[in-house]
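Support case: iron/sulfur cluster complex. Customer-provided input:
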Amino acid sequence: MFEIKPYVDSKFCLECKGCCLFMKEKWLPHLLEDEKKLLEKDRIKLKEINNTDGCEFLNRKNHLCCIYGQRPFECRLYPFLLVRNEKTLDLVVHLACPFIMDSRESEYFKTYSSELVSFLKKSPAVDLLKKEYKAFRVYPEAELFKIESDILGKG
Ligand code: SF4
Ligand code: SF4
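Agent response - structure generated as follows:
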């Protein structure tokens, strides 16, 4: 799986704990089919990440991700999200993330968003997204701010 430079500073996340521990139930990642196969190949015990007790891959002692190098695409991308619509995927940010609310008007946000759009529209990212776009979900629109429509160029 390709790397995506994290948008949020890890110190900020450790204080928030909105992700991984899901204490505030902000967001729950899911696994794409390719990711399930990769984890199974490495004999990583696999359950869907679908509860609010925290992610099974989180080390509770040091708050680090046990599968950091293989963490799901959605974990790498968050607080940016890909939202499925009828034909394609739109790139949005999740307004439930406090770091987004703090930084949304900044130059850092604009530059990062623009670089992310370019990255997602090129190989290898766009190839994976075309293959698995039906696996992405729909989120409540009130929590989202749209960055770019039609990442797959199908519109
Ligand atoms: S909601 Fe945002 S700030 Fe909080 S842990 Fe997740 S990415 Fe970090
Ligand atoms: S897989 Fe890792 S990064 Fe993703 S929610 Fe679980 S602990 Fe967090």
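Residues 79-155 form one domain.

Case will auto-close in a few days if no follow-up is received.
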